[in-house]
Amino acid sequence: MPPKKKQKKDNGFMVFMKSMKPQLEAKGHKFPRGLTDVIPVCSPLWNKLSPEEKASYHQKAKDGGGTTFIKEERCDTRGVPLNWKEREEQKKISEKDHLLQKVEDMISYFATQGTLENHYFYLAHFNIAVTTSEGEYPPCEIAIVKFSLLDGIAKCYHDFVEPGQIRLGYAHEAKLHSENTHNIPTFGFKLANSDYVNITNNIKEMLKQPDGGIAPLFVVDEDNAKAIYIVDWLVKKSCQLDDSYETCSPFKIYSLNKLFYELRRQADVNNSTLRFSSIALVAEHFGKGMFFYSKNMACQWHVEEDNVTFCSLTRVRNYAYTISDLCCEYYGLSLLPNRHCPSEIADDNKYVVIPKVTKTEEPEALVEVKKKKEEEEDDREPSGPPRLPNTPATANFKGPGTGRGVLGGSMGPVSSATQSPGRSRAIETAPPAGRGRGRGLLLLADDSD
Prior knowledge:
Elements: E1 7-9, H1 12-26, H2 35-47, H3 51-63, E2 67-69, H4 82-113, E3 121-128, E4 139-148, E5 152-160, H5 171-180, H6 196-207, E6 217-219, H7 224-241, E7 253-255, H8 256-266, H9 279-288, H10 300-304, H11 312-331, H12 343-347, H13 364-380, E8 395-397, H14 425-428, E9 441-443
Parallel strand pairs: 3-6, 6-7
Antiparallel strand pairs: 1-2, 3-4, 4-5, 8-9
Helix pairs in contact: 1-2, 1-3, 4-8, 6-7, 8-9
InterPro entries: HMG_box_dom, HMG_box_dom_sf, Maelstrom, Protein_maelstrom
Organism: Daphnia pulex
Subcellular location: Cytoplasm; Nucleus
């Protein structure tokens, strides 16, 4: 038989912890390991109780029988209960679905109000110094663009950020990450801004709406966790520099992939061809980076470093140009240089939507002229004497370097009296061949003729 589970007698403190646990969880406390995590929180509270209050809890413990069975939970290698991890994963999934639904409802509302083309969205990208196993993403570069379908990119914000002290053990990893991506030095970068209050206030000012609210930031799905950490990190750093700074973060992070999906779909909800097959396909369009190497995409520092593709400013401008590329046509909107597309593309007239061409039959007179020209060209081509059926003409080859592969050398028949290391006389005096005939092989008349 399996051993019986251990029994533990309840005391007044145990009853007190069990009664306080729901109240603490309602206030935001989390206890992933159960009562083990409740002990350090409840101990100070228990010590503040009067002897009479403690006696009441001891009496409750006695009335309850004095014993209780401890439920054993399955845990991972770190001691975290698996049930708790599953609940957290389900919670994240439900939160993500809720945010995606918010974006869909937002775009649908603007479309019904007729203001979708005029509404401004804020697209963001963050470069980081390093990613730690503790879930930290200290930033080193920020870029945000104010974008609408009608005006394209109306405003840009860009700044380098001092990432601060890197967690012990990650200095080398941060150096490798910088060398492989954005090239921004982790330590001693002169352009890095350590005035976090100013950075945070600049972002708030850019996102501020007429009603006083703060517009959401849209980032690609793969950067969602990174963006949430960074905006909270900026607020915490600002509070450390300014004790009076507001501790509550006003920033909201939404899915840029979902935004792109809905903008294209709302161009014509009845046209199924405008709908991406999945949001994953949206990420592929952003990942292509078709505008990465255009002019005026990156900041000046990354241009001088010859590393424009990893600049945050390049990334956000590429987001805006990609959305314009695949959406504005269906809204009937004109493309403006440096707003919807790079200026050199607009100047070279390369960025033009070609209308569908319906094939029409050519006039008979034009067809007759073309046939007459073809017949005249055939008449001008050289032709040898007629040969009998099944009798091949004598084949002579050009000199070295004329044909392809083995046909490049002199392979024509040469008489023993005139044979020499050079090219044969027949090939030197051969008449010119027709245009493109033979592909390096000249079909000539017999010498006897």
